[in-house]
Amino acid sequence: MPRDAIVLVATCGDGSLLELDGRTGLHFPQDSSGAHVQTEMLSDAQLVQLLEDLRGSGAEFLVIPAEKGDPLSTRAAFVEYLRQSFTHVASETGIVDVWSLADAGPPPAERK
Asked: Is the peptide bond before 29 cis (omega within 30 degrees of 0)?
């Protein structure tokens, strides 16, 4: 990831995971103030919309640490959306998955 990248991190509220050596780390999911929101509070559709809103605001990567990101990993429709829309750029089994948000195809509503 470039040094100046804006990175969404599935932190489960652990702010220390936002310390990314020169990169801007943001909670995912988050509320309008940027504070962490529990994944369980949102539907898959809301997670997708939030991801798209944040991507539209400049977010370039989504990092899902295995330990902290497990709630996202169990969301089948959200994970399928990631697979169909973005490039999986890095993975370390049991440690982390990284998605590039720059490679999106057309919005889901436009896909046939």
From this structure: yes
> Which structure tokens are listed for 75?
């969301």
pLDDT tens profile 66-83? 876 678 888 999 999 999
Please tell me what DSSP assigns to residue 20. E
101 contacts 55 by C-beta, under 8 angstroms: yes
Over the stretch 77-103, which tens digit does the pLDDT of each residue have? 999 999 999 999 998 888 899 999 986
Strand partners, 6: 24
> pLDDT tier at 35 (50, 70, 90 boundaries)?
very high
10 Å CB burial of residue 64 (0-12, 13-18, 19+) is buried
- Cis amide leading into 107 (omega within 30): no
pTM for the model stands at 0.87
What does the alpha-carbon distance between residue 28 and residue 9 come to, in Å, rounded to a whole number?
5
Residues near 24 by Cβ (< 8 Å), separated by ≥ 6?
A: 4, 5, 6, 7
